[in-house]
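Teaching note: in complex prediction, the entire set of molecules is handled at once rather than each chain in isolation. The prompt given to students was simply: 'Predict the structure of this complex.' The entities are:
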Amino acid sequence: MFFLQFISKFIKVLRAGESPPLVAGGFVMGFVVGITPLLTLQNVLILVAAILTRVNLASVFFAMFLFSFIAFFFDPVFHNIGYFALAQIENVKPLWTMVYNWPIAPFTRFYNTVVMGSLLTALALTWPVYFLAKKGIIAYRSTWGEKIENSKFIKAVKGNVLFKWYVRMRDMEW
Amino acid sequence: MRPKGVIALLSIVLLVGVGLYFFLDDLIEKQLESTGASVVGAKVEIDNLELSLAGLSISWDRLQVANRNDTWKNLFETGQVSFDMEVAPLARKKLVINDVSVTDIRLGTARDSDGSLPQKPGADPSWLQQATDNLQKNVSDLPVLNLSILKQKVNIDSLMATFDIRSVARIEEARGEADLTFRKWTKTIDEFDPKGDLTKIEGQVNALKSAEVSNLQGLVTTAGQAKDIIATLNSFKKELGALKQAASHDLGKVTNSFASVDDWITDDFNSIRSKANIGDFTPQNVGKMLFGDVIVTPTIQTLEYVALARKYMPVAQKLLASGKVEKPPRFEGQDIRFPLLNAKPDFLMEHILISAASNHADTSRVISLQGEVAGVTSQPRIYGKPLTFALDAMLPDSRAFSATGALDHVTDIPSEQFSLKADGVKVRELSLPQRPYLPSTVIAETANLAADFSLVGETLAFKIGFSAKPVQFRFGEEMAGSDVIARVTREVFDSVDELTFSAGISGAVSDPGLKISSNIDDILARRISALIGGAALEAKNEIRGRIDAEVGPKKQEALAFVSQNSARISSEVDAIQKRIDDQLSIVEERKRELESEIDKKKKQGLEGAKDKLKDLFKKKG
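The expected output is the structure of the full assembly:
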């Protein structure tokens, strides 16, 4: 029920409420945490930052939930990227060795291929995801939301059981 | 800043802190108990463990480590102990303790509950299992000092009646094979082809000898005939040579098969002797009977602890990842290792000061132990130094035992070396295994002991030297007996004032050999041999005599048969050869005469021609 609550809140936020940069910022933070293995120092710091700042928490947890599933399918790709970055680029090995000797290194698990691969991917996609999320929220609020709700397809779907579940979720009071 | 967020975060931190405060001690205690139990192979129990996060120190009120060989007793237990941990290695889940002082260790204390763990089949390495089995076999295979031969005469008649003397059948079998060989060669010589031709040749040779030839042409023709006869005789000689060689080979085989007759008789004798249980009573057996268990049991216990050390302090470790794992489990990936500066092992206790005492109600028997252990680590190669220890053990009013040792697992081949030394220590009682007629306890006033244990890779060398004086032997009631043997053995042991023995266990660790010798070996063996030797020797001689009486004639008859037939066949072959050689010598002689005649005739013919030529020139002139 915890995640359903955040999904419901996120759907509400998409329609109206907090400013798109705050929602998109939360979404990006959730994206980074969701796409990388959870138990690392950097993810804890991102979550602490999300809690302390005014980004939208519902979008953080929704993105975490969503990208955790997506990350499952891309796991082998992250492993390959991570292995390449950690073991096959000779020039950065001194850097990794130095970081490896820091006392906090074990908490970051940067030396793990999946952690490194997914982190590099997340960092590379941070700005595009933020940009697309912000544009998407603005577009949804201004045009897409109304158009989508008046489309024949949606009207047909509204009679569907799944849609009724969606409405119940959307209007749910927590 | 989100005020609610700050409150939530603080709440989480507080909750985690409270949880750690109440449960972390228990968690660590359980983890240490579980790890310790898996290392020791028996229960490890810690009372009131406390972790101080402020100073990163651990303390406990009591630690009990059960003895895996006697699970109702502790190997040792400690009183209150506290030590500090290094902070930085904890981040890498490494436990590094620089100094710990354990001053209140008590050895062999009784337990309230059984300290055994459920047995895991196949947990011991195969070499340890093999070593244990073979060492125990070394002792269990020893003959019991069964001297019943002194009391009952061996019934040779019934023994011989039930025993099938195999050497007779083997001689018959060999004789049959020899007979077949001789028949074959008799037939071969009879059918030897050149024999008929040789008679013809002899006729030709006689004709050649008596032939009177005067002209040159006749001489040349006769010489040609001689050459042909020589060639024929040489071909016979060659054929006979091959035949002789084959005959010699077959006759040699026959002779060789009869060379083992004495071994067959000895086999029969040994079989009957074994059936009659007339074993040799060697001094070495006495040494093993008395001290075999005393040596083997601690050796096996030492090897068990060495096996544990090899398991938990392994020699070979990969420090860096060797290559890419193509398909690691989902979300787990692969950890890439980089060189660590000042790397620490996962577990390290650099220096432990020990002060201990054994648990005895009688204070005069309390053994106190003091010393230090260095370099206890789970990764010796990373630590780079072997585990070393030096301990002194003392009894009241006695000099000290000193034990030193090193477990070197830093290199590829593990090596464990221990030595124990004691000069002039009070031993008091040493229990011996319960064996009929032998003492169950030896009481020594003062003793000297030197033991050196070495296991390098798979090679074991364990030497023990022990001497004690004065000594007294005590016999258990049920084993003492009252017959003549018991009286003799007691007399022997009562007369021994000084005991010295040396023992050695060496060889491949999976199959080590055990040797023990002591000064009482010779004394006891002489006395026992004097008693049993006469009866045993008499029985042995009678058995040997019976076997010789039954097998001897067969053996002599077979050997004579072989000898006669071999000689006959050899002489027949030699006779044929002589005939050939005789004819050859006659023909060669005749051939030389003919060639000389031919030369003469040729010279005469040449002189005649010269004279005729001179006359011709004179007439013309």
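Point out the following to students. Chain A touches chain B through 32 residues (CB under 8 Å). Residues 113-150 of chain A form the longest helix (38 residues).
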